[in-house]
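Example 321.
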Amino acid sequence: MNWLAICGVFSLATPAIADSTSQEASAYQELVRQDARLATIGYRLALANAPFCNKLERSLGWVLHDERQYPNPVAARISLEFRAPISVSAVVPNGPAERGGIKSGDGLLGLNGTYWSWEGEPVRSKSAKRLEKVQNELHQVLASSNAIDLNLMTAAGSKMLQVEPIAVCASRFWVDTSSKLDAGADGENVRISEGLMAFAAKDEELAAAIAHELAHNLLNHRNRLSKIGRKRAHILATEIEADQLSVWLMTNAGYDPAAALRFAERYGRKTGLGIFSESTHLRWKNRVKTMRTEIDILNTASKVNGLSPPPLLPGGSLATR
Ligand SMILES: [Zn+2]
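Predicted structure in complex with zinc ion:
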């Protein structure tokens, strides 16, 4: 999801409207492509590690977007498929939505027999509000049901499809349109900047960045830090834990954990004295050392049902659940 940061990035008032629209159209397409990439990798990590997560949620394995979230709706309609104002921008391969027959471009009209009406809304009302309302309703329904009926506008007309969500580690993933190399985790969301996504062009390296942020959420670092205080030593300890857990999360999801070492080195060399080099963050050589040690531990640890139970996660074992 990207509505938080997209506004204001693109200018509407340029003399060469055609050029500007086509530029915006390709920027939107790229954003949707990166959204799909983040959703796919995030889903894979959150699904594979579900047996070890305390906090689970039901996922449909899709990304929704609202035509209003794009500053230039004309460019959005030219370049992206919207069969309704709120549509599916991507489905995760082999996820519940795809298995239920949903395709990207399908419009979401309502759920469980009810339909949303957007008529009469002020044209310039914030897109985030409308999409947030839909996301919240979905969230509530998914929290209490094993199946959901979705009313959709598909290429073949309006249709009701039943989809069975799947339990994954709780975390939302969204692309921040910043060109900086930046990422963050606030306990519920994993945010990755477009700049970082472009830098991590290989999916395995992007998986390393996502796994690190997801680890912060799974370890409840934000709350823990607000309780014990954000002292440098405390922040550093959470950074080490996130690096340690990330290689387990990656391995369970079928990614090569050595990609985390390559990513930390490339990122460290590129950013030099950037945030990860401040005293609260390990310098990249230490990060690589920490993760290499963790990979050695992982390689000698016994597997349960083909997975490696991460020692840092509560329970830490399939057998205890
Ligand atoms: Zn971190």
